Amino acid sequence: MKRMKKNIAAALALTMVLGLAACQGGNDKTSENKKSKTDAPDSIEEKNGKDTDSGQDTQVLDSGEKIELTFWVRASSADNNQTITMEEFNASQDRIHVKVECYGDNYEEVLKLACNSGEMPDIFEITGLSNVKTYIDAGLAYPLDEYLTDDIIAEFNPSAFTKYAYDDHVYAIPIMTRFIRVFYNRDLFEEAGLDPDNFPTTLEGMYDAAKAITEAGNGEFYGFGLPIKSSSTWERNIDNISILSGLTGPCSFNYATGEFDFAKEKEIIEFFSQMYEDGLMMPGSESIDIEVLRANFIANKIGMYFDGNWMINGYNNEIEGGDTTNWDTALVPVFEGTERAKDYLMLESGDCISSSSKYPEEAFEAISYLLHNLYSAPARKDASKAAPAFSLIDAVNEEINSSSAVLALRGIAGLNTDTENLSSFAVTPHSVLTLEGDSRDTIYPLLIIQGSSMDIDTELQKLSDTYNIALKKAIAEGLLNEEDLKPEDFSYYTR
């Protein structure tokens, strides 16, 4: 197995972080929980004795007795895909039973309390805001390396083994994949005399389409939606185009130089600012957040906007009117003449095996089943839950997304879940910085709204300076490792 890149993101401001430190006193040193493949037990029999590496006492079961595993997730309702998939797993065999417990907004606090009491579940979810180093430093997570055979590794997009990796060990595999697409209204395209089957492949073409739709709308609808109030707007729109264009990574971090360089996003900012100035966006865009924008899109008020792949399921199955409005999806365009790089794959939520679990092998079996069936099990239980697959396993995507039930859903045409063209970043430095100055969430809205009245070059240089000063401090404090910020032979096109 090739060397894993370190995930050195610092512990975020989670409710549980302070409590996790107390857990370390109840476990052996963290390094002793980092078992390598060569340290793995040679047999099931060895597992059923004392695990001398982790200090775990395993339990020998009587013949026919089921192994009971507890699995904690953040979901608020038991009617979630993880619970449904584990119910199917339980029914698929008679050796292991997994009990899923859902904690909603209290999840981090419950996990902290369990850590302090030493009563951890066998499997626990790392949520989107968490990072694996927090759990490793607290001695909570059991490495998966010994179970990641060459055959298993070959099934997954390589990004699966970077998000939750640390110090050459993998502790979880993400179950949620996110990427950005253009959502557009086919009816509004037709009203503007445009062909909805041929979405523009360049930003220049998208601008022209937004202008045509706005003119056709005559104040009733507009060409493009930009929810300026939402901080996520800059990642979905500007960052996404920058990554696709081979300019920077998330938040203008340049992996080729190991520094932030906001000037590289200048042309993209000016593109959106021009659309705002030319009135191609709905009036009041500066105070619109993503939820309001979605409501206007479904109400046929906005011709196009950028959103995440998960909204394909959201509009088809969850949001009222989403299954009747005539919308579709397409790949995000780049400027004319730009060589297209790989799409930005955002990864969230992985499942860890607790270092205190008596049955890590069986826990991995349950996790593996979850990774292979998370998108298909709900539809097998209830056909109305049919949804596209956004798996890190290409075979899963190919099977589910070619099914008649999924092909009948809106927005499938532009999905293109070939993970060869999707790639994540092992380290996203902006997520761990403490800034002493304005963030881009403050400056970018001003640059869009005020446009040419601001000195964009000066403002972008100020942002770069602010972020790079914070970056140096994070490196000095050991929150980031300099060698991870400038990977050898890095390319946005082949990463």
Structure description:
- This protein is of the alpha/beta class.
- The chain folds into two domains: 17-178 and 347-374, D-Maltodextrin-Binding Protein, domain 2, CATH 3.40.190.10; 180-343 and 425-485, 3-Layer(aba) Sandwich (D-Maltodextrin-Binding Protein, domain 2), CATH 3.40.190.
- It is 35% helix and 14% strand.
- It contains 19 helices and 18 strands.
- It has helices at 17-23, 44-47, 81-92, 107-117, 132-137, 150-155, 186-191, 203-217, 233-244, 266-277, 290-298, 310-317, 360-373, 377-381, 394-401, 404-407, 440-450, 456-476, 482-485, and strands at 50-51, 56-57, 67-73, 96-102, 123-126, 141-142, 165-166, 169-170, 174-178, 180-185, 222-225, 253-254, 259-260, 302-308, 327-330, 343-344, 346-354, 422-423.
- Strands 3, 4, 5, 6, 9 and 17 form a six-stranded mixed sheet that branches. Strands 11-14-10-15 form a four-stranded mixed sheet.
- Helix 1 (17-23) packs parallel to helix 4 (107-117) and helix 10 (266-277) packs across helix 17 (440-450).
- The longest helix has 21 residues, at 456-476.
- The model is unreliable at 1-58 (pLDDT under 50).
Derived structural class? alpha/beta
Query: What is the CATH fold-level name of the largest domain?
Result: D-Maltodextrin-Binding Protein, domain 2
Mean pLDDT: 85
The radius of gyration over CA amounts to: 24 Å
Number of helices: 19
